# Entry
Amino acid sequence: MPISAIPASLSYADADTRLGGALSAVFEGAGASPGYDEVLFFDGDLTLDGDFLNAVNELHDGDVELIVVTGDLKVNGPIALYEDRPGLYVGGHTQAETLEGGEAEIYIHDGAFTHLVYGWYNHGSLRTGTVDTPWVIDYDHAMDVYAPGGRWVNNYDDDEDADFAVGDSIVEAFVPEVVDAEDRCLDVDEFLNRLQAGLPVLRSGVQTAAESASDGVVGARLAE
# Structure
């Protein structure tokens, strides 16, 4: 397994001090809810193969509450943190197939994710700097994600600010294989499987409003 930084177990307070207070600025921290006692601390760049959490567990014997990578994080696989532990903080650039969050607190700076960024349910939080990804999917999650080139899907309720949202917007835009016909939302597992297989998820010709507007501008310029 490729790895650069060697993990160290630190208290939350010690890890926060080493980062100049960066953890307490974005996480609840020790003494609050959810609270962290022990931090698995990678000082430097970290590269891992396969599922991120499985790879970390192979490096550390015991429960992990919060994972900190001070440098760049490269994962040749998904980052999927659906339980409340561990949380994740990355000080540098993060690269992976996906970034998926559930009950955990996740905070990264800039990054690139091949398939999607996905926030599920309303207990955790997922916050990023500028990230490059084709899809951002929100299911009633605390998300602060800046993905200027990505399409945004509200998979929980109607949302005029999203590119696609629950109801007719999703049913009419996406291929039937990735739509939950009963709830009129995306089946995210099938959606991701199709992306990984290199198959289209949108019906032919479907564009977001921004994409349609951009095509109109380009067409107008060509006609000049």
